[in-house]
Design a protein that fits this description.
By secondary structure, the chain is α+β, with helices and mostly antiparallel strands. The chain contains 9 helices and 14 strands. It folds into 3 domains: about 60 residues, Arc Repressor Mutant, subunit A, CATH 1.10.10; about 210 residues, BirA Bifunctional Protein, domain 2; about 40 residues, Roll (SH3 type barrels). The structure holds biotin. Biotin binds next to α5, β5, β8 and β9. Biotin (BTN) binds next to α5, β5, β8 and β9.
Length: about 325
């Protein structure tokens, strides 16, 4: 029996324990399955404990993973992923300007479909329409995914923005948050913003080179952690469900669900995404004010069309909005 490189086998032991969930797994089972000596299994369990994992030893039965440290490194994320592409290559950083800037550099340098950039802290996080995105260390999940959709014409690439919104909405719901989508891809809970998505791409005339989907989720922020102007507008998983969430678990759920929806989009086109988006929408049927590059329009958000554009019924007729900022207005009495 040989013992592979310590980092790799430590990760395998962790993955094995994580997969077992609440079950106790015997040292013998781990050793047989991973081809490690019993001494190596014990050494890796000790190594994981030293890094903050709580692993109980249950007398004469084996080990149980009780708690993982709230960090966003490959060691924490990889065992939780159920993906074939997304996150299989992970670039994890303590601090970056922006994960999307780094992902774009990597994409330009030839990085493959599904590579993911994660940062504990961003110093220059970017939002839609030139805004900044604030993400304090240890409180949120900030990541960017490189996609290389093979057969998607550039004109249809914006559909991926709505694909991402559906996936992140589902990840938040899985975490126990009643999230909904405000067009095109803001995630709200209790009327406040809990996550944002920034989609960027590079294309030639007939081919998408890459799409970078940048996602920021407010996870364990308390109200006082948000900068003053955002306190009334923003919320977090902690604030919505009353208890903190393990960030690696939420990130893994985001990537797993994003992959499922991206694959469905590649196989069946936009229609199932449109239906899923409509079901999760908090915009449709509401009176809205939409700020676009051409000015503001007010009306009722009636529908999203087959391209993902928002159709707003205004006093002047039905307007089709391709890009803009939506504010939900209180219904008129
Ligand atoms: C928005 O709501 O305006 C979009 C916010 C997107 C923020 C994320 S955080 C990870 C990625 N890196 C960035 O610089 N921005 C996105």
């Amino acid at each position: 029996m040989t013992d592979p490189a310590p980092g790799a086998s430590e990760e395998l032991v962790l993955a094995f324990l994580a997969e077992a969930g609440d079950e106790v797994v015997s040292g013998e089972a781990i050793s047989d399955k991973l081809g490690l000596t019993r001494a190596a299994v014990w050494k890796h369990v000790e190594g994981l404990r030293a890094q903050g994992y709580r692993i109980d030893a249950v007398a004469s039965r084996g080990y149980r993973l009780v708690e993982i440290p709230d960090r966003l490194r490959a060691l924490e994320i990889r065992p939780l992923l159920a993906t074939h592409d997304l996150g299989q290559v992970l670039h994890c950083h303590e601090e970056l300007g922006s994960t999307s800037d780094r992902a774009k550099q990597l994409a330009e340098g030839g990085a493959g479909h599904g590579e993911v950039v994660v940062a504990e802290r961003q110093t220059a996080g970017r939002g839609r329409r030139g805004r900044s995105w604030s993400s304090a260390a240890g409180q949120g999940v900030s990541f960017s995914v490189i996609l290389r959709p093979e057969a998607l014409p550039p004109a249809r690439a914006p559909e991926l923005t709505l694909v991402a919104a559906v996936a992140i909405c589902d990840a938040l719901r899985q975490a126990g948050v009643e999230a909904g989508i405000k067009w095109p891809n803001d995630l709200l809970a209790g009327g406040r913003k809990i996550a944002g998505i920034l989609t960027e791409m590079a294309a030639e005339a007939d081919r998408v080179q890459w799409v970078v989907i940048g996602v920021g989720v407010n996870v364990n922020s308390r109200r006082e952690d948000f900068p003053e102007p955002l306190r009334e507008e923003a919320t977090s998983v902690l604030l919505e469900r009353g208890q903190p969430a393990p960030r690696a678990l939420l990130l893994a759920a985001c990537l797993t669900l994003l992959e499922d929806w991206v694959d469905l989009h590649a196989e069946q086109g936009f229609e199932p995404i449109r239906a899923a988006w409509r079901e999760r929408s908090v915009t449709l049927g509401q009176r809205v004010a939409v700020r676009t590059d051409g000015g503001e329009l007010v009306g009722v958000a009636e529908e999203i069309d087959a391209t993902g554009a928002l159709l707003v019924r205004t006093a002047a007729g039905l307007e089709r909005v391709l890009a803009g900022d939506v504010a939900l207005l209180r219904p008129r009495r």
